[in-house]
Amino acid sequence: MNREHLFRNAIGDNNQRIFRICNYFFIDRDDRNDAYQETLIRIWENLHSFKGNSLLSTWIYRVAVNTCLSHIRSRNQRNNLIESTIDPEILLIPESAGNENDFIEENKMIFLQQFLLNLSMADRTLVSLYLENLSTKEMAEVTGMSETNLRVRIHRIKEKIKKEWEEKQNGTG
Predict the structure, then answer these.
(1) Which domains does the chain have, with CATH numbers?
(2) How far is CA 73 from each of CA 17, 64, 67, rounded to the nearest angstrom?
(3) Which pLDDT score, from 0 to 100, does residue 74 have?
(4) Which of 122, 120, 35 is nearest to 84 (CA)?
(5) How far is Cα 84 from Cα 131, in angstroms, rounded to an integer?
(6) Mean pLDDT score, 45-64
(7) Distance of CA 1 to CAs 4, 5, 7, 63, Å?
(8) Alpha carbons 132 and 126: distance in angstroms, whole number
(9) Is the pLDDT of residue 77 over 80?
C-alpha cells in the first residue's frame, strides 16, 4: 500500500477523533483548526516511521496529543502566557438561545471546557483520551504512563470534577 493510500485510510478512519482531541485542548476555533492541520501534516510527514508496534489509531492519538501540546507550548511562548483563560463575556448565552434543556447542556459543556483548561497538560491529555474511550493499555502507550498510575489519576480527576460540579450547583464554588 502506498503512502498516500495509507494516509487517506488513516485519516478517513480517525478524522473525527483527531478533531475531538484538538477540541479538548482548544476552545478558540483558530487554535483548534491550526492544531488539527498541524496534526495532519505531522501524520503525513511521519507515516513512514509507523512501525506497527501498536495500532495505527493509537499512533495517531499520540501524534495528535503531542501536536496539541506542542502548539500550546509555542503559543504560550509567543504570547508569554502560562495558562489559557476564557473571557467570561464569551460565555454569556442569551436567554432565547433555546429551551431549558439546551441551556443546561450548554452550561455543562462550558463547565467542562473551563474545568479542562484548569487541568495540567498531562491530566488534560488523560481526559481527552478517556473521553475517546481508549483502554488504559492504549492510554499507557500514548502517554508512557503505567496503567495503574493512569487509573489513579483518572479516578482523582473524576472526583475533582464531581466535587467542582456539585459546588457550582450549590453555589459554593
Answers:
(1) 1-83 (1.10.1740.10)
(2) 22, 14, 10
(3) 79
(4) 120
(5) 21
(6) 88
(7) 8, 6, 10, 21
(8) 10
(9) no
